[in-house]
Amino acid sequence: DCIRIVQCFEATRQRCCRLEQDRRRAREELARVEAERAALEVKLKHARNQVEVEMNKRHRVEAELEKQERKLQLVLEALMREPWGSGEQCSILSALVGRRFGAALAPGRRSSGVDESCQSLLSHSDISYDRTEDDVVRH
Fold first, then answer.
1. Which end is more exposed in the chain, N or C (fewer Cβ atoms within 10 Å of the end residue's Cβ)?
2. In Å, what is the CA distance from 101 to each residue of 94, 110, 113?
3. What is the pLDDT along the chain (139 residues), one digit of tens a residue?
4. Rounded to whole angstroms, how far apart are CA atoms 9 and 15?
């Protein structure tokens, strides 16, 4: 009986050693994963800040574009009211206004030179800035 008890104790001791090794490996893996998560959170915060900066730039550029398009529209309207020497010059200007600038000068439209085939992917209105996760206290 004593030998059987000693064998059970030895088996239990070996099992405890294996469990301790497993615990040590799990803690190392946890530390590695937490470090990786922290690095990814830093990258995410940087990316969010960069998106915000780029969106602000885009808003400023779009406002400037609209301002310049309006100025161009006013100049073209003024030129159309000017008395021209020949009907040919007026028709050339009308064709230029209709073909070249018509779409760009329509209110609320962007310049036709801008490729917006990915507009839905890049639209600032589709981007969510949920910063609640940034403020979560981690233990």
1. C
2. 10, 11, 11
3. 899 999 999 999 999 999 999 999 999 999 999 999 999 999 999 999 999 999 999 999 999 999 999 998 888 888 777 776 566 666 776 776 665 455 544 445 444 444 444 444 444 454 555 555 555 545 4
4. 10
Nearest to 98, CA basis, from 76, 81, 82: 76
pTM score, whole prediction: 0.51
Q: What is the dihedral of CA 69, 75, 77, 80, to 10 degrees?
A: -140
Close Cβ partners of 107 (under 8 Å, ≥ 6 residues apart): none
Q: How many residues make up the chain in this entry?
A: 139
